[in-house]
Amino acid sequence: MRDLSGVFKAYDIRGIVGEQLDAEIVRDIGAAFARRVGEKGSVVIGHDMRASSPELAGAFADGVRQEGVNVIMIGLASTDMLYYASGSLDLPGAMFTASHNPAKYNGIKLCQAGAKPIGQDTGLVDIQREVEAGTPPLSDRTAGTLETRDLLSGYVAYLHKLVDLSGSRPLKVVVDAGNGMGGHTVPAVFEGLPIEVVPMYFELDGTFPNHEANPLDPKNLVDLQAKVREVGADAGVAFDGDADRCFVVDERGEPVSPSAITALVAVRELAKDPGGTIIHNLITSHAVPEIVAEHGGKPVRTRVGHSFIKAEMATSGAIFGGEHSAHYYFRDFWNADTGMLAAMHVLAALGEQDGTLSALTAGYSRYAASGEVNSTVEDQAGRMAAVKEAFASRDGVRTDEIDGLTVELPDGGWFNLRPSNTEPLLRLNVEAADDSAVAALRDEVLAIVRA
């Protein structure tokens, strides 16, 4: 019996090609997926630019078809383009990508019809068990058909319906695609708009020759920041490998926090749908719920992770959701995350007025933050308990354990301490009134964590 516990993650499937994932395993995953979602009659499949992606996507398609389910291959795609395909066609889908992971990795993001996520609690465990057990194919089925479609133009047209950039003042924007799928989608999305795109690393190359396609790591923004300053751009945008996340830098080359982007987009969405619900995870800045409430919206706090955000989006009817990791979710995009749509909102907001991006976003950035600080800790539960004990007895302190430990202090400062799901790490995020207050609170917590 196979053991695939190393590749089936909480939200997707991911592993080293040739060691943990190969065509045979992926074909069986495709068959198990088809048995689960086959009532729709077809499955849509897309893939990124990694060298292994076409073969693995083809193997998955073979597994789907052997169960009598038809396949629509859309070829090269960003992950949000696959969500567009799943949503617009109302079909289950599979996206082959390992996002920002190094070249030796690949993976699969699965969704039900309408881009509804499939994770551990929504079918991924069942698929894993079937593949591990070697469940035989349904031998009485006629093989499904194989169709190829190009949905890029449909994806572009749909985004343009949601955010109209045609009336923007002319903008110069540097875009770092990191040799990932942004290099495929950005030229199509911005063609014909008053946006001069200065391209960086648009060549599709799954070996990532210039830098990792992970803009969450500051070292991968350095080239973008330098280019923005060099060409005098109005803004810079960086996408991760599968282009479902976007990161923004202003005209000075300074990063704009994902919390500020969340607040900015939330205000724009609330202008279209007054009183709407906005989802934010518990690590986003406290400025987000404050600004949402000030604009008549209803802020709802949730755990970290796209499965929790999407579930809350569906149950609450939220119009928008944002995470500190630069995932942005839109009701009008089937509750799925799309970095491209978030980037278009930022550029539309910038292009509607004459000021700079730094001036525009200053009003959405109210507090100082530490960013994520990781500590290697074997006894995660013990160290978290020690931190809770140290703070909970103080006057005016509030704590909760919705996701890790969150501690809110009476002066407005707060922190969240969460264990990693995959490594012996504790992840600390701190926010306070200014940098000195952040440093003091951070150091106090770390002294306990690392004792």
From TrEMBL:
UniProt keyword Isomerase present: yes
Residue span, Alpha-D-phosphohexomutase C-terminal domain: 372-446
Cofactor list: Mg(2+)
Keyword Isomerase (UniProt): yes
A Pfam family: PGM_PMM_IV
Alpha-D-phosphohexomutase alpha/beta/alpha domain residues: 7-130, 155-253, 261-366
Coiled-coil intervals, chain numbering: none
A single GO BP: carbohydrate metabolic process
Keyword entries, A-Z: Isomerase, Magnesium, Metal-binding, Phosphoprotein
Gene Ontology molecular functions: intramolecular phosphotransferase activity; metal ion binding
Protein family according to the UniProt entry: Belongs to the phosphohexose mutase family.
NCBIfam families per the UniProt record, alphabetical: PRK09542.1
Name of this protein: Phosphomannomutase/phosphoglucomutase
Source species: Actinophytocola xanthii
